[in-house]
Amino acid sequence: MTQHQRLLIIDFGSQVTQLIARRLRELNVFCEIHPYNLLTDDILRGLNPQAVILSGGPDSVTRAGSPRAPQAVFDLGVPVFGICYGQQVMMEQLGGAVEGGHHAEYGRAFIGPAEGHKGDGIFAGLFDATNKDRGREEVWMSHGDRVTALAPGFEVIGTSPNAPFAMIADESRRFYGVQFHPEVHHTPNGRIMLENFVRLAGFTGDWTMAGYRDEAIRKIREQVGDKKVICGLSGGVDSSVAAVLIHEAIGDQLTCVFVDHGLLRLNEAEEVVTMFRDNYNIPLIHADESELFLGALEGVSDPEVKRKTIGRLFIDVFQRYASGIEGAEFLAQGTLYPDVIESVSFSGGPSVTIKSHHNVGGLPEKMGLKLVEPLRELFKDEVRALGRELGLPAKFIGRHPFPGPGLAIRCPGEITREKLDILRKADAVFIDQIRKHGLYDEIWQAFVAILPVRTVGVMGDGRTYDFACALRAVTSVDGMTADYYPFTHDFLGETATRIINEVKGINRCTYDITSKPPGTIEWE
Ligand code: XMP
How far apart, in whole angstroms, are the C-alpha atoms of residue 120 and residue 128? Predict the structure, then answer.
């Protein structure tokens, strides 16, 4: 249905397929990823791609029953670019040969031009004799098999010691293949190849965030019709952007439910409610259920029991409010692309595993609701760009992630209202310090944890016996791994002094210097 020129990525299960999509969007090219085993020749033709990329993958084309591209890919008359496994599949299907075993190559490699070739077509601009590698190209390899005979019509453009067919081309059909991964950061000139490829395929670069927004709005209207949608708002970037986008599409057919579990940060509930109700005029139910949650958490100190209690209550509460909205047929979620990317199940034949992170997991089935997920094609930073396009305040868009269970998992041991109040104040001072020093955007996440221990101190000649807290600040790309942030001693000293002076109930401050792994970002 899209009006964009479309590039089709056929996924063979590589770990880095989503990076191909990412690179293409950076080139303003609209692309879709489809698992190889869900594509028939008919579906393929219906998609009407202007070019096709065959991704890498973990299998070996030498194994009977291993994945193949629909043969029609090669009859569409459009450019095709095979990457790693994709190159081998292309050779296998077009009459070349691939050999397995003993050819494994992982990590950095250098490719030089084949004799008589200086690089043109998608390889134009490579092999510059004046580059730092004297005309060779640094690339990232990750393969076990290799091509040993070219299919008719192909010629070798570049070779490495272990991959004599590292770059191949059939210019007349505009078919290209590489043994390495141009989409990863460790292939510095990979972007040039992808750029050349989309240019020679005739892409004009018509994918923009403004265009995306208009199209998303059209799709939401088409999907929802005149029915009602409910959206669980967490105050985080993803659900907020989804809500504002859907509201633009269908106005008051959308109602948001913001469940306040009493475990939010200082002034957070007011900020979220004000933004949505006052600035956007979006119908919003502010479900203040802090008594319910804090009551149920009383006496609980086991982290897993805390999480499960909060998760269960969240679903109950959301369901109670949502079922009061008459005629609601859809549930909106801010699910992102990395959450939903469909990965091929290699063990179980043609079945497809869909990883899906639902904030309100299980609800759609339980309530008989259909899902609206307008962000499912986007990466986190693209969601932020869409948020800017929609006019959400910059400060809101750049906010650090905040976990669903909220302050409960930053309060090891028993949760009490007193400790939560102290924690909120200390956290606000820490974040204020980080903002004042201009460090907020460099840090993935920063917060205070209040420790389940009181320590002795001396303040103004008197003895104190108050809580200790830990400051936590990390850098990360995706939250999967993290490093502690290297604050200066001056910053740490100033922050500790401010917290102890300004927050009654804390008399000792520590800085958590654990990376992840072995630690986790949150304390519980
Ligand atoms: P950990 O502590 O596992 O956290 O290193 C990684 C990232 O995930 C966030 N996090 C959560 N987010 N629900 C969420 O929505 C949760 O239960 C949850 N637990 C951790 C955490 O804040 C960090 O960004």
Answer: 12
Average pLDDT estimate for 53-76: 95
Cα(133)–Cα(451) distance, integer angstroms: 53
Q: Which residues are catalytic?
A: 84, 181, 183
- Tell me which of 193 and 104 has the higher pLDDT: 193
Residue to probe by mutation, ligand 1, list 448, 514, 521, 523, most atoms within 8 Å of CB: 521
Nearest CA to 187 among 293, 50, 84? 84
Q: How far is the CA of 61 from the centre of ligand 1 (A)?
A: 39
* Alpha carbons 467 and 221: distance in angstroms, whole number: 53
Contact criterion met (CB below 8 Å) for 471 and 484: no
**pLDDT exceeds cutoff 50 at 350:** no
DSSP-assigned beta bridge partners for residue 469:
450, 509
- What value does the mean pLDDT take over residues 286-303? 96
CA 8 to chain CA mean position, Å = 20
The alpha carbons of the chain give a radius of gyration, in whole angstroms, of: 27
Helices and strands of the chain, counted as H and E runs: 15, 22
Query: What digits encode the pLDDT tens for the residues 362-387?
Result: 566 777 889 999 998 787 888 999 99
The 10s digit of each residue's pLDDT in 161-183 is 888 899 999 999 999 999 999 99
Ligand 1 atom 22 nearest Cα = 403
CA of 226 to the centre of ligand 1 (A): 36
